[in-house]
Amino acid sequence: MKKIQLHWQILIALILGILYGAFLGDYVGYIDWMGDIFLRALKMIIIPLILSSIISGVTGIGTAENLGRLGLKTMVYYISTSTLAIITGLLFVNLLQPGVGADLGLTREVSELGIMQHSFGQILINIIPTNIFEAFSQASMLSIIFFAILFGFFINFTSEKSRIALTTFFDATFEVMMKITMFIIRFAPFGVFGIVAYQVSQSESITVLAQSMGLYMLTVILGLAVHALITLPLITRFIGRVNPVKQFKAVTTPLLTAFSTSSSSATLPLTIQSVENNSGVSNKISSFTLPLGATINMDGTALYECVAAMFIAQAYGIELTFIQQVIVVITALLASVGAAGIPMAGLVMISIILTAVGLPLEGLGLILAVDRILDMFRTATNVWSDTCGAVVIAKSEGETLKV
Fold first, then answer.
1. Which domain covers residue 158, as residue numbers?
2. Nearest to residue 306, comparing CAs of 236, 356, 344?
3. Are 230 and 52 in contact (CB under 8 A)?
């Protein structure tokens, strides 16, 4: 008998959770523990996962020699496009406000959730931890991310023996954490069932909740469409001086593969082959920019995480100030560096953002059911950005391309 794929299991669990919450809401106490256990498991892995993934990603940049002109251009491109993607998502989620009116019956005061109320300057100061172990215990995500980036960066400047040992250790740690993460995600259907059943039992209108979810999906897809079809082509055309239509045709195969598999890492061999053979980028450029891009350049994921966090805040009736939205943008950008190129890894990254700004992790239950569909769109956007970056950087290095 063919096993039902995970995203279908989650969809079935969503439907069952809605029915249970709607018709057996008085007995939700018998099953909501499944959601609690799932969320506790996610919380358990957040800190070791983000620490190992970011350190592994930063050390993946390579030795000090790779941090020269080519590395600088690549990092500027990746950070710039990811920031533009997040801002695009932020604009759409504030414009369409998909979570407003979801009526979860769980409205909380911002102060109760511990969302940072400091000035922007104070927040920047607080990013630097006075005690990293205290930051670990208090789940101060911005401090942990800052420390991980700093630690990973300076690993590349140690002796060869130390660099190899530390890189191997954190790569291995990240691999173990991903194994644990995927193990926990297997139980997502049970978690979704418990969370959604409870949410629905507290909500006065299932129809309103369903409409909010539909509008949320539309918001994410519109944001990704604008970034993929307008922002990236404009960068390719006017900065890289490359025809974006020809470039799109050159990388159609990896884009379709990324869309169907929801894995930028699995698509990487096809991406390199298409960029070299069809776009005319040299192996020197492609072998550096594309593997690095598959690790840290997550435009679609970053946009999605930003919209998801804002949607959850709106659904809980929490109004984030401009400064708090800036925190969401910064955390989404930094967390996207550590997002593994595998299906559903973005969900764990969202939990990091929610933790950073103090939003309830229970909100994950709202977006889990539609994550697989949106994962396909955001992964294709990730790979499209990688390929655009490769041709832009190749052109800046004076290479003659086929597109």
1. 6-396
2. 356
3. no
CATH number at residue 29: 1.10.3860
Q: Which tokens belong to 214?
A: 């539909």
**For residue 192, what are the contacts with CB-CB under 8 A and spacing of at least 6?**
10, 13, 14, 17, 35, 38, 365, 368, 369
Sign of CA dihedral 171, 177, 181, 182: positive
Give the span between the Cα atoms of 168 and 363, in whole angstroms.
35
Whether 75 maps to a domain, the answer reads yes
Task: Give the count of domains, the chain.
Answer: 1
The reply to whether 401 falls in a domain is no
Taking residues 104-125, what's their average pLDDT? 51
Confidence of residue 280 (pLDDT cuts 50, 70, 90): very high
For residue 208, the surrounding DSSP H or E stretch is helix 206-226
The CA distance from 55 to 50, in Å, is 8
CA distance 263 to 245: 23
The identity of residue 55, as a single letter, is: I
Mean pLDDT of 109-126: 54
Give me 31's structure tokens: 């099953």
Q: Is residue 1 part of a domain?
A: no
- pLDDT for 13-69, tens place per residue? 878 988 888 888 788 888 888 988 988 887 888 788 778 877 877 786 655 555 567
Nearest C-alpha neighbor of 180 from the set 45, 377, 370 = 45
What do you get for the CA distance between the two ends of the chain, in Å?
47
Q: Identify whether 54 is part of a domain.
A: yes
Distance CA 364, CA 223 (A): 20
